Amino acid sequence: MSCPDCFRGGQAKGEPKGALTTLYGVTTYVALPPSSTTSKSTILFITDAFGLKLVNNKLLADDYALRTGHRVVIPDIIPGHGVEPAVIAHMDNVMKPVKWWDILGQLSRIWSVANAARHFVPFMLKASPDKAHIFKSELEYARKLKADIPPGGKLGVCGFCWGGYGSTNLCVEPAVEGGSEQLIDAQFCAHPSALKGPEQVVAAITTYKVPYSLAHAENDFNWSTAKMDTAEAELKQKYNATGNGENGYNYEFITYKGCAHGFAARARPGTADVQGADDAKEQAIKWFSKWL
């Protein structure tokens, strides 16, 4: 999780419709579906590095709840509650091309580097998504959610950037320690970060045959096209699975052309990210509507 795009993107506008509450001792944003729906299922939403501080995540959860008819919960589980959204402007300034003779431009860039580093360096030291204690907190929360779901209900999980590591790895976990029942019933992630390699995605799909959907940014140096192609090749060759239910394996990898890491949660105005974000949202809604 070291790419600059993890801390860049656009900030959405809108008023969240959900509410903050406390679930299992954790501050949680809850987006409820329309009162006319009868779903007993829940979607666990694991955010990008900005957590509940970035309104984009709440607005996206609201859309998921509205369109799928399932309850959506976002736990505030990132140490330090996530990166401050102000970092986005600093990172944009850092990445903006500046002529070497532009003294003011270079000074502005140095100032932005210092301000951005003040936020994301401590974050990376204590809140990298692959740290064992962070995944443990996600796992404990997910298991409590699963235990509280009424008969007939299912548990889905979605993860974005920082959250894609957790959503992917929760797919290999049992509902209870030492048990045989799967924890997750359907997974969606977009531009996941910190995955060790294709083998983690393959394991997420094959361990419990969890329906797995991934939205891939073409211009993503974190979860690259090469890694995705390797995962898909292993699924086809080793498991004889093309994603359409053969041998019980259901998955889809969709690449969004021209999009950068972070697009599905933080689309940058005026870029391919905007259409990509809309399409990725439809991808997730269709997936959860089908499998939950």
Automatic annotation (TrEMBL):
Listed transmembrane segments: none
Gene3D superfamilies per record: alpha/beta hydrolase
SUPFAM superfamilies, per database record: alpha/beta-Hydrolases (SSF53474)
A GO molecular-function descriptor: hydrolase activity
Domain Dienelactone hydrolase: 27-290
InterPro entries documented for this protein: AB_hydrolase_fold, Dienelactn_hydro
Pfam families: DLH
Protein name, per record: Dienelactone hydrolase domain-containing protein
Originating organism: Lophium mytilinum
Organismal lineage: Eukaryota, Fungi, Dikarya, Ascomycota, Pezizomycotina
